[in-house]
Amino acid sequence: MPNIPHAQRAPIDDVDRAILRILAENARTPNNALAEAVGIAPSTCLARVRALRERGVIRAFRAEIAPAAIGLPLQAMISVRLRAHTREQNESFRATAPDLPGVVAVFHMAGSDDYLLHVALASPDALRDFVVDHLTTHPAVAQTRTNLIFEQIAGRRQLTPEL
């Protein structure tokens, strides 16, 4: 199936949905507890989780770290507009942006801006340096717009499939 992500090809059944719901709530749930909660054998559960990972349904297990707790109290969302919408400029920026210091996430956007960068940095000076040294000097970047984040509030609804 061309242009359809692998994760969307195989159906997700009720057991997979239950596994995903539990892991979205607590990704550290031990396999035995997960298997018991969804009513399957631990070996079956392990195989299902492995299959969900291989299919791209589960992309990662990670810890969410408070940036301020590790000396990065300033967060911002930086909109980036490219000079031209050529494949070369797009690929050039996409290859560079995720590895820039302080980048938490990169979003490729539709609309007036091409990219949105979530950054966490130590100070206003570090933010200025990031924009000046890493974004405005990139040959593909035409314009940036920076918005400070005062507070990050988690959504009340996890990305979990409904039964």
Question: What can you tell me about this protein's structure?
Answer:
- By secondary structure, this protein is of the alpha+beta class.
- 36% of the residues lie in helices and 19% in strands.
- The chain is built from six helices and four strands; from the N terminus they run H-H-H-H-E-H-E-E-H-E.
- A four-stranded antiparallel β-sheet has the order 2-3-1-4.
- It starts with 5 loop residues before the first helix and ends in a 14-residue tail after the last strand.
Mean pLDDT reading: 90
pLDDT < 50 stretches: none
Tell me the Rg in angstroms: 20 Å
- Multimer state: single chain
* Total number of beta strands: 4
Outline the biggest β-sheet: 4 strands, antiparallel
Q: Give the spatial strand order of the biggest sheet.
A: 2-3-1-4
- Number of distinct helices: 6
SSE succession: HHHHEHEEHE
Terminal-residue CA separation: 26 Å
Beta-strand share of residues: 15-25%
Overall structural class, as computed from helix and strand content, comes to alpha+beta
Helix content: 25-40%
Overall outline: elongated
Search tags:
alpha+beta, 36% helix, 4-stranded antiparallel β-sheet, transcription
In short:
The protein has 163 residues and is α+β, with helices and mostly antiparallel strands. Helices cover 36% and strands 19% of the residues. A 4-stranded antiparallel beta sheet has the order 2-3-1-4.
Q: How would the blueprint of this fold be written?
A:
Layout: H1 6-9, H2 14-25, H3 31-38, H4 42-54, E1 74-82, H5 87-96, E2 103-108, E3 115-121, H6 124-135, E4 141-149
Antiparallel strand pairs: 1-3, 1-4, 2-3
Helix pairs in contact: 2-3, 3-4
